[in-house]
Amino acid sequence: MKKLSLLLITLLWLAALSGNPLIPRYLARVWFDENNSCFVMFGDEAWWDGFTVNDLCFTTSAGSYYLPSSYTQPSEPFFIINLSQEIPGFTIQRNEDFLRLAGPPSFIPEELRWGPQNDPSVHMHALGPGQSATQVYVSVYSVHGYYETGLTWAKDNGPIISTYDPACNSTVNVHLRDTNGNPAAGIRVFHSYFGYPPVYDQHYTGGTNSSGDWVLTSPATRQGILVKDPQTNGTVIQDLLFPEPGETIHLYGTVNLMGSYVPELIPPAGVLKLYPSLLSPSSGNTLNLKYESGSPLGQTARLRLYDLRGRLLSGKEMPSSGEAVWELPKLSSGIYFISLSEGGRILARSKITVLK
Q1: What's the start-to-end Cα distance of the chain, in Å?
Q2: What is the DSSP string of 82-143?
Q3: How many CB atoms lie within 10 A of CB 6?
C-alpha cells in the first residue's frame, strides 16, 4: 500500500506541474431506494492507492460508522454497498443530511451534502425516486489562461453502474439586453462550480453572442452565475443554481451600453511568488510570499487559500510591503490555490502543492 501511495503522490505532483491535477474518487455514486436504504458505489479509481473500504469511516449527521470486520471487499471495481444493510445501526436522512468518507491520514476526504431549497451550502437538493448523485470532473478556464480540473457532485436520473459520468445534463441560458431592448453582445459571464459563496475569481467563461445569449450545457451540478454591468460594475445577475437533470434554466438581465462593448480579459496586476511552491514534511507549513508589481499595495489587500474544490480554507492580510510569512493550516496532500485581492479585484493568484 505504501508503494501505491507514493505512486499516487508522484502522480499528484506531476499533475500539479501540468496545471491540470486529478484527484482519485472513491465514491462513484450515492442513491436511495424506495425503502430509504442508502447505497454507495465505488469505482475503479478506488484501487489507485491500495485502501480498502474496511479502512474508511462513513459519517452522517447521526454519527460515524465503519463496515464490520467480516465485510469482504469485492475484487472488481464498480461494486455496490447497501450501507443501511451492511452497517448495524447506520442512520442517514433522505431529505436533509450529508455523507462524509474519511480514512487514514493520506486519504483525501470526500463529502456529499444535500438539503432543502433555502440552504445554499449543500451540493444538491434531496434525491428523488430513481435519482443518484455522482462525482464528476469538471474543467474550467481560469482568468490566468489555463484549464483547471476539479471534483464536484452532479444529480443524475438513475444509478448507472458502468461509469462516473451522468446520463443527463442540464443547461443554463443567460440572456442579456441593453437599456434600449437590443441584444447585448460581448458581455462577460462568470461561472463557478466550486464553493459557497461561488469562487468567481477563478473562472471566466466568455461573453454573450450576437443574440445576447450565453449558454452552458453541463452535468446537473450546483453552479454560480455572475454578470456585472460593463459601465457601472453593478451586479446584473448573481444566482446560485441547483439544476435538475434535463432542466434548462433561463436567466435574464439588462446592462448599460455605449456603442459596442468588447470585454477584455483583465490581466493580473502583478505576480505572487511562493517559497517554497511545494510543501513537504521537511518544509513544514510555513510559506513565504512576495507580491511583485509596478503598483504598491493598499491597506486592504488580503490573501486567501482555497482547495481544489474552491472551498475557502484560510485567509490573511497582506502587508503593504508586499511580503508576508504565512503559517498555513494543516493540509492534506493535494493542490491548493492562493489568491491576493484588493477592493474586490484579484491582483495575483498562485498554485501550491502539498505532499505529506
Answers
A1: 15
A2: EHHHHSTT----SSSEEEEEE-STTS--EEEEEE-TT-TTSSEEPP-TTEEEEEEEEEEEBT
A3: 13
Closest to 204 in 3D by CA, of 144, 154, 268: 144
pLDDT band at residue 198 using 50, 70 and 90 as cut-offs: low
As a whole number of Å, the CA-based R_g of the chain is 22
On the question of pLDDT at 16 being above 90, the answer is no
> What's the gap between Cα 129 and its chain centre?
26
The Cα–Cα gap between 16 and 24 comes to 14
Buried b (16+ CB within 10 A) or exposed e, 94-118: eeebbbebbbeebbbebebbbbeee
Q: Which residue has the cell 493540509?
A: 331
279: nearest Cα among 332, 229, 240: 332
Half-sphere CA count of 118, side-chain side, radius 13 A: 0
Q: Which of 186-190, 239-243, 298-302, 324-328 is predicted with the least confidence, judged by mean pLDDT?
A: 298-302
Closest of 129, 112, 109 to residue 121, by C-alpha: 112
Residues 165, 170, 171, 172: is their CA dihedral positive or negative? negative
Q: How far apart are CA 114 and CA 176, in angstroms?
A: 31
pTM score: 0.67
SS3 279: strand
- 213 pLDDT more than 50: yes
Q: How far apart are CA 244 and CA 241, in angstroms?
A: 10
**Exposed/middle/buried for residue 175 (C-beta within 10 Å: 0-12, 13-18, 19+):** middle
pLDDT at residue 30 above 90?
yes
**Domains contained in the chain, CATH given:** 2-157 (no CATH), 169-255 (2.60.40.1120), 271-354 (2.60.40.1930)
Mean pLDDT of 319-344: 85
**Phi–psi pair at 343, nearest 5 degrees:** 60, 30
- Return phi, psi of residue 282, to 5°: -75, -25
